[in-house]
Structures are given as structure tokens and as C-alpha cells.
Amino acid sequence: MSTHDSQHAPAAERPVGNDRPGHGHADWEERYAGAPVWSGKPNVALVAEVSDLAPGRVLDVGCGEGADAIWLASRGWRVTAIDVATNALGRSRAAAEAAGVHVDWVSSGLVELPERDGCFDLVTVFYPALMRTPDSSAEAALLGAVAPGGTLLVVHHAEIDRAVAQSHGFDPDDYVGHDDVVAALGDGWVIEVKEQRERDVTEGAGAHHHHDLVVRARRLPL
Ligand SMILES: C[S@@+](CC[C@H](N)C(=O)[O-])C[C@H]1O[C@@H](n2cnc3c(N)ncnc32)[C@H](O)[C@@H]1O
Prior knowledge:
Layout: H1 25-31, H2 44-50, E1 57-61, H3 67-74, E2 78-83, H4 86-99, E3 104-107, E4 120-126, H5 137-145, E5 146-157, H6 162-167, H7 178-184, E6 189-198, E7 211-219
Parallel strand pairs: 1-2, 1-4, 2-3, 4-5
Antiparallel strand pairs: 5-7, 6-7
S-adenosylmethionine binds next to strand 2.
């Protein structure tokens, strides 16, 4: 199910950027300043979709507290994990040290990340908080980061109740959704997985979400 539909204002008519109350980098910092936010476990869809891939270079976008990046590193991937929240990266670094794995933790937004295009055999994004913009810059950055022959894995929450989200100051229409990612995958990509799945997460702030939208796509070799 899409998190946005045609009756809502298109992105071009809404304010963009990270300066709106409740949506900015400072809000993420604050969120990661308190108790642990997420479950601390690797995402089930990550394990399902990536276990059979040969390890290479991976970019985890919006890594949060780092559980997915740490799992990837433990499987032999060379991991770059980015987040806009330095508090999140501090937690991730500590968890990686405790797990005895190396990850390059980078304080950056996706669009601002240098040395990105074509660099990664795998790009993963779990529950993106990437702003929708009229020029679709986040989608372009995501797809562009994948090397020819590489894989993009994006997982969103499904069946978001827009009214409930808005009552918490969050409008799903403001963010790059599953449909936006699928629409961006044009010539040069093969969609290998596109489905809604149940998820069973009992800990962390996402425990009330029970369905995922999973898209895994492979960029065709040149
Ligand atoms: C919903 S959380 C998901 C965290 C993690 N992927 C997980 O599944 O537990 C979204 C994360 O994206 C980060 N974020 C927000 N804007 C971002 C951006 N422009 N580029 C990279 N990360 C961003 C937030 O700080 C937050 O950690």
C-alpha cells in the first residue's frame, strides 16, 4: 500500500528540507539521546535478502543504532554506515566495538555523501527518513550509489495510518516512499523482490509496525 496518494498535495507544493518542526536532524539527535530506540537486532528482511549474496562493499543509509551494519560486517561485508544523528553513530560505534567488528561510521545525509556514486555492491535502507523533493534527489542518490551488477534493498513500513502519523506530527507524504523507489527503478534495473511481508518485532520503537514493504533490485552490469 502506498503511503501517499493523488489526493494529497504533491511534493512540489509542500515545503521541503529538514527545517520543519519534528522532522529535522536535531529531532533525530534528541531521539537518540535517551533510551535505546530500536530493537538492537538485525532486520529480518536484511538477513533474508542478503545472506546469499557474496560480501563486498555495502552502504547502510540511516543506520540508526547500527544493528544492521554490524550484522553485515560480521558477515564479511566492508560496511559504510551513514546517519545524520551523531548520537546514533556514537551508539553504533560502541556496539561495533563490543561486537569486535569494523564499520566506517559516517556522519552524513545520503544526498550529501561524497564518493558515493557507483561505489557499493549493496545499498540498504531500512525505514528511510529521506525527504521527498521535487527533483527526487534522494531516489537518485540511492540508485546512483549502487555499482553496476550491485543490489539495492529498501524496506518501508506498510499500512501506515496517515491520520495517526499526522497526529504525531509526521506526514508520510513528506518522505520517499516504497512507490517512489519502485518508480525510480527504470531501464538498467531488474526488480527481484517487491512484496509486502509480515514482520514480528517485539522490541523497540517500531514494534507496533507489523508489515514491511520490501523491494530488492539489481542494477544490470554495464
Ligand atoms: C526510522 S530510522 C531507521 C533506523 C535504522 N535504519 C533502523 O532500521 O533501525 C531513520 C534513520 O534515518 C536517519 N536519517 C534521517 N535523515 C537522513 C538522511 N537524510 N540521510 C541519512 N540518514 C538519515 C535518522 O537519523 C534515523 O536514524
